């Protein structure tokens, strides 16, 4: 139900980083001592020590100092409500300070900061998480599979509802709870995500990527991609870094 990552920058130069929407629900611990300033949903924020971010529909802009350490956990969307008693849609287009809603988070942040070994940090977080995590229901597994799988981009809302044994209205209500988007919008969002993945990992032409991601045509592809990322597909291909969805330039 989750995976882990860690980024350590020591003695390097300051950078400006753009994170375009990438369809992930993540808990992120800022283990460094330097404050991080960001622009989220067109609002300036100071990034909390531990925060959760869910499905974003616009880029996040970060100013990162030369020394920075992040420990992150990518969660399945349905898990959030079990852990924190609120749906992930609450965190869409926000960096939501978790220390406000769960006092154990601050202790966990201290504990993770004292552990330099990535595997020890994983073990520490897993121990904390397992006390809060029930077994997912078959329906939760089905929704998580839909949201994390590229195989559904060609479906209509009706076809998806039938596949999940929901009415179209129930489907949209559930997807709004999980992502902040209704069924029609999340299907379009998934096309964008698949296109971003193909731009990042393949040598396909942009026309081929538009076709493989089930866009109506090239102009629909460009308009949709720019609507979420504020970049054309061509601009993203030129500026992308090694990490999908991330663009890095010197400050």
Keywords:
alpha+beta; Jelly Rolls; Arc Repressor Mutant, subunit A; five-stranded antiparallel β-sheet; 20% strand; globular
Compact description:
The chain is α+β, with helices and mostly antiparallel strands and 251 residues long.
Description:
There is one protein chain. It contains 11 helices and 10 strands. The chain has 251 residues and is an alpha+beta fold. It has 2 domains: 2-135, Jelly Rolls; 138-247, Arc Repressor Mutant, subunit A (Orthogonal Bundle). The strands form 2 sheets. The chain has a 5-stranded antiparallel sheet. The radius of gyration is 19 Å and the shape is globular. It starts with a strand and ends with a strand. The model has no long low-confidence stretch (mean pLDDT 93).
Please estimate the helix content: 40-55%
Poorly predicted regions: none
How are the strands ordered across the major sheet? 1-8-3-6-9
Q: Indicate how many domains the architecture comprises.
A: 2
Query: How are helices and strands ordered from N to C?
Result: EEEEEEEEHEHHHHHHHHHHE
Strand content: 15-25%
Helix/strand structural class: alpha+beta
CATH architecture of the largest domain: Sandwich
Q: Kindly state the number of beta strands.
A: 10
Shape: globular
| Chain-averaged pLDDT | 93
CATH class type of the largest domain: Mainly Beta
DSSP helical segment count: 11
- What name does the CATH topology of the largest domain carry? Jelly Rolls
Q: What is the terminal-to-terminal distance?
A: 36 Å
**Main sheet?**
5 strands, antiparallel
């Amino acid at each position: 139900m989750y995976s882990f990552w860690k980024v350590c920058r020591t003695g390097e130069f300051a950078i400006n980083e753009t994170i375009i929407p990438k369809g992930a629900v993540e808990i992120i611990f800022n283990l460094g001592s330097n404050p991080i300033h960001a622009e989220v949903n067109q609002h300036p924020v100071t990034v909390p020590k531990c925060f959760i971010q869910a499905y974003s529909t616009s880029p996040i802009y970060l100013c990162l100092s030369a020394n920075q350490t992040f420990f992150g956990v990518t969660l399945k969307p349905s898990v959030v409500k079990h852990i924190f008693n609120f749906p992930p849609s609450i965190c869409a287009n926000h960096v939501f300070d978790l220390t406000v809603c769960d006092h154990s988070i601050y202790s966990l942040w201290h504990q993770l900061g004292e552990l330099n070994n990535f595997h020890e940090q994983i073990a520490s977080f897993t121990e904390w998480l397992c006390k809060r995590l029930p077994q997912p229901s078959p329906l939760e597994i089905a929704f998580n599979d839909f949201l994390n799988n590229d195989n559904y981009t060609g479906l209509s809302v009706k076809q998806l509802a039938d596949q999940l044994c929901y009415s179209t209205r129930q489907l949209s209500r559930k997807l709004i709870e999980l992502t902040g988007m209704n069924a029609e919008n999340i299907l379009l969002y998934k096309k964008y995500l698949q296109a971003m993945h193909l731009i990042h990992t393949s040598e396909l032409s942009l026309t081929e990527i538009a076709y493989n991601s089930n866009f109506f045509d090239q102009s629909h592809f460009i308009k949709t991609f720019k609507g979420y990322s504020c970049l054309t597909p061509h601009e993203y291909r030129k500026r992308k870094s090694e990490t999908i969805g991330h663009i890095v330039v010197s400050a």
